[in-house]
Amino acid sequence: EKEGLYCQGCGVKIQTENKGEIGYAPASALERDVIICQRCFRLKHYNELQAVKLTDDDFLKILNEIGKTDALIVKIVDIFDFNGSWLPGLHRFVGHNKVLLVGNKVDLLPKSVKKTKLIHWMKYSAKELGLKPVDVFLISAAKGDGVRELAHAIDELREGKDVYVVGCTNVGKSTFINRIIKEYSGVEDVITTSQFPGTTLDLIDIPLDDGKSLFDTPGIINHHQMAHYVSEKGLKIISPKKEIKPKVYQLNERQTLFFGGLARFDYISGGRKSFTCYVSNELNIHRTKLEKADQIYEEHKGELLTPPFTDEVQDFPPFVKQEFMIRESKTDIVFHGLGWVTCNEAGSKVVAHVPKGVGVTIRKSLI
Ligand code: GDP
């Protein structure tokens, strides 16, 4: 084992002895200028994920450490999966530290969405969830929108202290850090980014010009995300890559919408009303009658209703359902990691079905 070599992709300590274990890199890789572990190498060049997992305990340890430091915390959430990527426990760990809240992937939302309104909504929602951020920013780490402004805000708000960037897996934390590094140094893609959850492994230390550091922490795995129940192929379909085109449905009572075979939305009662779906453009929405829905699901999941695909339906968890009363107009029913349905009018009863283990929430509409 080489002393003091760390993977520039995920931050794990490099070792050359044990192939199947974390941090492995072949000896030849150590000759290169940029050293990355084999896992990051594969991910980067072949889009292939080698399974290595950090336990929740390890994440808690890191969060605990952050609570003890004097630092600025930058918390990143995926604006497309706000509730699912929230990290509910964080406010208990931040101690006296300031938290800057960042909504990433703003490029996915329809252009018509007003940024100021969304920021207001984020502040309101954060407060409801027990967190009072010093400020809220919207960015697209992938496109670069808002990153420079955020970098400036971080520099001001940190008041000469260290910075910890936290967020759940898949929120785009690595993409963001890569952007920041590029801003500072012009080095491209030194940190692994990928569509697969759980790929950043250890604290990555990015030195700041006053001797302090910006630390990238491991992404905390969010077990309630849809991403954990679909294959790579399915994940590609449900992860939106560009601006979402909202789809409006005028539903009669007792009509059902299927989102592929991954989730189901039943409109139970309330007269003819309009509903707007915000999901990946690639995900098929199938409308049917409520009384036929069970049978259609049994007969067509994996075929007409995909993902999951034929060979995956056997391992796919059964649906569980949850009923909601829509008391106010513009209320969202959120399927964590998949998207949401905005109930545009008040006064209806709806039922959401999701695979057992995936979160469903109701919220004041984001848009
Ligand atoms: P991490 O697990 O939080 O480090 O997330 P990654 O940086 O690996 O990104 C997870 C996925 O989100 C990848 O597929 C990225 O391409 C994608 N992603 C990251 N930032 C953005 C963004 O600003 N917009 C969009 N549309 N996708 C993004």
Automatic annotation (TrEMBL):
Domain CP-type G: start-end pairs: 60-223
Pfam family, one: YqeH-like_C
SUPFAM superfamilies linked: P-loop containing nucleoside triphosphate hydrolases
GO molecular function per UniProt: GTP binding
PANTHER family the UniProt entry points to: GENETIC INTERACTOR OF PROHIBITINS 3, MITOCHONDRIAL (PTHR46434:SF1)
Full protein name: Ribosome biogenesis GTPase YqeH
Lineage: Bacteria, Bacillati, Bacillota, Bacilli, Bacillales
Gene name per UniProt: yqeH
